[in-house]
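User: Predict the complex.
Assistant: Input components as received:
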Amino acid sequence: DGGITQSPKYLFRKEGQNVTLSCEQNLNHDAMYWYRQDPGQGLRLIYYSQIVNDFQKGDIAEGYSVSREKKESFPLTVTSAQKNPTAFYLCASSIDRGLAGDRDTDTQYFGPGTRLTVL
Amino acid sequence: QQPVQSPQAVILREGEDAVINCSSSKALYSVHWYRQKHGEAPVFLMILLKGGEQKGHEKISASFNEKKQQSSLYLTASQLSYSGTYFCGTEGAGGTSYGKLTFGQGTILTVHP
């Protein structure tokens, strides 16, 4: 089955620790995204990557880092510099618009999410 | 700039209709609509492109007025399964907005029997 997987589902972190959230997709999508969602809020873009070995900061990148060494994987590290990391983290992927003739394929598909809690 | 959704919450009885609006202050290329159940990932509903196209998906349809930078989601003959939080995600028309979605704060829809 094609899809996006995120692990772990729940993650607990002590203050001062770095943690890495996993995101893997087997949809052969070029673009991948990380969002943060706080209770009662919309989704805010942390980082995105449109091609392997390249990524761009989103609206709230401070305190986070990413890598894109493989097309299928886009891990997110929440560093100790992120002052308020408790949130629901969502990964998404899509076909890169420039490579797809059909604009409808720009749809972003989301993984199941990781709920991070700082103790 | 985050798009503004209205209303913030809607309560319906099964079979009633609802409209959810999404307004942006910037020129848009596309509007994406998602529904999210509590604790789950958002599920894609539809995408509307620049050009004022109206699309439909079962009893859920949407329109996009690019001149007003507004999109509306129409839910007709609501079902219990329609309950959830609805988000619009907007993609700006400028080159720097390529592929980036900015999401509204969400509209909570509750359908009662």
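The CA atoms of residues 16 and 25 of chain A lie 30 Å apart.
Let me know if you want any component modeled separately.
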